[in-house]
Design a protein that fits this description.
One of its GO terms (cellular component) is cytosol. ATP binds at residue 246. It is a single chain. The protein is mainly alpha-helical. The protein has four domains: 6-75 and 186-237, HUPs (Rossmann fold), CATH 3.40.50.620; 83-179, Alpha-Beta Complex (Glutamyl-tRNA Synthetase, domain 3); 320-372; 378-462, Orthogonal Bundle (Arc Repressor Mutant, subunit A), CATH 1.10.10.350. It has 19 helices and twelve strands. It has helices at residues 19-34, 53-66, 81-93, 104-116, 187-197, 213-223, 253-258, 263-271, 285-291, 306-319, 322-335, 346-353, 360-368, 378-384, 387-400, 407-421, 425-437, 445-452, 454-462; strands at 6-9, 38-43, 72-76, 97-100, 145-148, 155-160, 164-169, 177-179, 202-206, 229-233, 236-237, 302-303. α2 links the parallel β2 (38-43) and β3 (72-76).
Amino acid sequence: MTAAVRTRFAPSPTGYLHIGGARTALFAWAFARHYGGQFILRIEDTDVERSTPEAVQAILDGMNWLGLTCDEGPFYQMQRMDRYREAVAELLDKGLAYRCYATPEELDAMREAQRARGEKPRYDGRWRPEPDKTLPEPPAGVEPVIRFRNPVGGSVVWDDLVKGRIEIANAELDDLIIARTDGTPTYNFCVVVDDWDMGITHVIRGDDHVNNTPRQINILRALGAEVPAYAHLSMILGDDGTKLSKRHGAVSVMQYHEDGYLPEAVINYLARLGWSHGDDEVFSRDKFVKWFDLSNITPSAAQFNTEKLNWLNGLYIKASADDVLAADVSSRLARRQVDPESGPPLDALMGLYKDRVSTLNELADAVEAFYIDVHPAQELLDQHLTDTARSALHDLCVRLQTVDWTREALGGAIKEIMKAHGLKMPQVAIPLRVLLVGQPQTPSIDAVLEAMGRERVIGRVTRYL
């Protein structure tokens, strides 16, 4: 590409940063990074009634957690009102916009009449100036809206970088309101002015904006601005094939952080929602940027698969350094009022458990037993703590008083007891696991003993014998 690439992510702070928005941000960010361009963050906060500071912060937090750093911004539309009014005035002066005094009641009656005739409800241009048309006097006490004078003939055509060629007849578009009665500019107009002023070369966004694009292109042309390239991403479906919604999982991207997902895993997973590089499933952020291009995005809907995300997250956890995992798990335990200093070093436990979990919360669940007093469920005690097991564990505790506290020596001690009592490993190891951590499955029992420490092991076992 000859021109410097400039992309943007422009969320509305009326809610949190969702998976769909995060994927849009990721693709816009990656496209800019791939071509050595700039990525701009813009907060479209003109919906004053629904926009909140908390939602703005949630968007910024989500972007920061995912590592999608912007080169410029965040810019806030509410701080650019003077610029939008200036652009509206420019269109009015050129005769490319006009004042419309139709009241809400008049517009409702107009649409009802159109529906009754079987027509598509739309503004009928009653206040649109035409060469041979005489407009009535503006009614007293009615503040006008400003409408864009949309071209009448021809079509709006663009080559969408995901969906291909799209053509919309201008006859299908009525005259859009670009400023409300109080002078506040509307969404479609603010977007156009922002993209123009910020030099956006590629607009990458969800395909719910396809219907806005012909209107925005016409306004850009009226302003004398260069039209950017457009790429409309198909929606993301839930596990069940329906449109992704709150009931399919996390409300916010930050909920994935709370639920124990690594940002690297979420980025990797989002990258594969509608984009591919051959059969590659697991790749770094740097590899993704190197490979990414809009030509490899599928125009069909992507389907969210929680099971696959969990699998991918498990791989990233397994590949993470033990000290990095320990720092995260330590904070998760602390939030549960569990003191991570009250037991063995967390680093050692990470190596034991990290290949057995798919989230950091599961990892915290698994190691919590090393730091709290464990009370095994009675049904597990009834099932596994038989008289035979009690006898063997009694002798094991005696042996554990003096054995060297190394994994090798502990394993040898268990085998001695097994041989003396004529038992197999599960007959000793499973009841021992139940008494130590309250679960019949753990990593290798000798490793668990070594990590837990002599005093805690003997204390937990002997109180049930």
